[in-house]
Structure formats: structure tokens, C-alpha cells
Specification:
By secondary structure, this protein is mostly beta strands. 12% of the residues lie in helices and 55% in strands. It has 4 helices and 16 strands. The N and C termini lie far apart (41 Å).
Length: 286
């Protein structure tokens, strides 16, 4: 659990800066929404890294093209039009199209180092104004992902590769089919769906400090399952056909199981809350 908490250190720092300010923001604020896009030539096997905004969603979907396509909806709030314009001028993202590695970095008042380079006389009162960036990103289906997020939804679909995910608070929807995946969430509701009978990769490891975790698996899954509650809460398990592994009895806090013929290790850890292990039907064939 200490390892899980440590993973949030960097992103928690700028969340604190942001949340302290927004707590004092005025109730009646003007709002401005702008849109920014970018496209980067990539290829199968490349890596996408993204540092999200303190508040905002990230949606990543795989496709058959070789490009990384980025669309962002940027919303800022302030007390008047002049302040809106000044805030909008410093909120957005920067793209670094490296060699087979695309990096996306969200920028704004939370990044004081960046702010000093673009607006040395940025008004202190605007540091308190709320803003968010919502991303929709398309990547080659075989891609590695590195995601650091603050507070907001996370969606991942049709991507296979090595993934490292750190999110402070999220309602997450992860549809995963393979690779080596490590995901850590502070709190929220995390839905994980594995719509294949055998995990195409080494391991899947999802950790949530507090909240609800819903794990959706096929009845004919072949894998080794480790599901555990570390503090308080319980596990609801719909899979009666799983075999006990290592002679460990199933409880409402610990399940070490062999599903089908066994296979890759799928690990689900929850500090406090409810975990639901649920059966799903195979996806419809096109």
C-alpha cells in the first residue's frame, strides 16, 4: 500500500495547489471553452506519455492508423472577460513528438515554473480560478501508455501494450486485452473489463486506495486471479467455477484463484471499499 500511495506524490502536489485556490473562487464566474488539436506521426509499438490537468478527463482509444491524434476541450472560469482572456492564454498543453515517443504535458497556473516563462506578471488572483482540460486521444492499437492524471474520468479502449497509470481520483473505464499493465488510483469507481479468454501479456495489476472496483471477466477466462481487500470492505464473487490456488480458502477479503487452465497473473487490490468480480458475455463478433 505504501508503494501505491507514493505513486501519487508528483500529481498530488499540483492538485493541492489547485484545490486550495479553487476553494476560495467566487460562485458566479464567466466561463470560456476553447478547443485545441494536434496530430503526431507515430507507429505501432510507440509510447504515449500524458500528464493531465489537475482537473479533467482523459480518453484514449486505439485505431489502425499510425498517427497520434489529440483533441482537447479547455474550459476556464473567471470574473470578467479580461481575466478569462489572460487565464485562457496560459492554460493548454504542449506536445513533444520525440523519436517513437509522444509526450503531452498539460500547462496552466498549477505549473509555476511554466507560468514564470510565459507570464512573469501573472495576477495572483487568477491562480484561484478554476479550469479543466478534457482530452480525447487516438493512438495506434499497439502502443505503450504512461498516464498521470488528477481528478476526472479515464477511459482506455482497444489499446494493447505496456501501461503505467497513476490517477488521484477517477471514475475509470478500462477495457484491456493484454500487455503489462500497472494502474494505481487514489479513490473513485474503477471498472476493468477483460473481454478475452486469455490475457495477451505478462501481468495486469490494478490498485485502488478507496472506492469501488468492478472487475468484468469472461466465464471461460484462463488466468490466475489475485483479489484482495487490504483494510475494510468486501469482495463479491460471481465465479463459482474458479479453483482455489495454494490451498487458500476464498473469503470476502481474499481470493487466490485459478480460472480455467490458468495463465497470466491478474491482480486487483482495494484498500477500503467494495470489489465486484462479475461475469460478462463474450463480445459480439463483427
Amino acid at each position: 500500500m505504501k508503494k501505491l500511495i507514493a505513486g501519487f506524490a508528483t500529481i498530488a502536489a499540483f492538485i493541492i495547489v489547485y484545490s486550495v485556490g479553487t476553494a476560495h473562487a467566487q460562485n458566479k464566474l464567466l466561463k470560456r471553452t476553447t478547443y485545441k488539436t494536434d496530430s503526431v506521426k507515430s507507429g505501432a509499438g510507440g509510447t504515449l506519455s500524458i500528464i493531465g490537468s489537475p482537473k479533467g478527463s482523459i480518453s484514449i482509444e486505439g485505431w489502425q492508423k499510425r498517427d497520434v491524434d489529440i483533441s482537447a476541450e479547455i474550459t476556464v472560469e473567471a470574473e470578467n472577460e479580461a481575466d478569462l482572456a489572460q487565464l485562457a492564454a496560459v492554460v493548454g498543453f504542449m506536445t513533444d513528438p520525440g523519436m517513437n515517443h509522444t509526450r503531452i504535458v498539460s500547462v496552466g497556473p498549477h505549473d509555476r515554473k511554466y507560468l514564470k516563462t510565459v507570464s512573469k506578471k501573472f495576477p495572483k488572483r487568477l491562480l484561484e480560478m478554476p479550469y479543466r482540460i478534457d482530452y480525447k486521444i487516438m493512438v495506434p492499437a499497439f502502443s505503450d501508455l504512461e498516464i498521470d492524471g488528477g481528478t476526472g474520468d479515464l477511459i482506455i479502449k482497444n489499446v494493447e501494450g505496456t501501461m503505467r497509470i497513476n490517477y488521484l481520483e477517477s471514475n475509470a473505464d478500462l477495457e484491456l486485452i493484454g500487455g503489462t499493465v500497472t494502474a494505481a488510483f487514489g479513490k473513485g469507481i474503477v471498472d476493468i473489463t477483460v473481454p478475452v479468454s486469455s490475457w495477451r501479456g505478462r501481468t495486469l495489476d490494478v490498485q485502488l486506495i478507496s472506492g469501488e472496483m468492478n472487475v468484468n471477466l469472461l466465464e471461460n477466462l484462463n488466468a490466475e486471479i489475485d483479489a484482495k481487500i487490504l483494510k475494510t470492505g468486501s469482495i463479491s464473487n460471481q465465479f463459482e467455477n474458479w479453483e482455489k490456488r495454494d490451498r487458500t480458502a476464498f473469503t470476502d477479503k481474499l481470493i487466490n484463484a485459478k480460472a480455467g487452465g490458468g495463465g497470466s497473473r491478474l491482480t486487483f487490490s482495494l484498500g477500503a471499499g467494495t470489489m465486484n468480480l462479475r461475469r460478462i458475455s463474450p463480445p459480439a463478433k463483427p
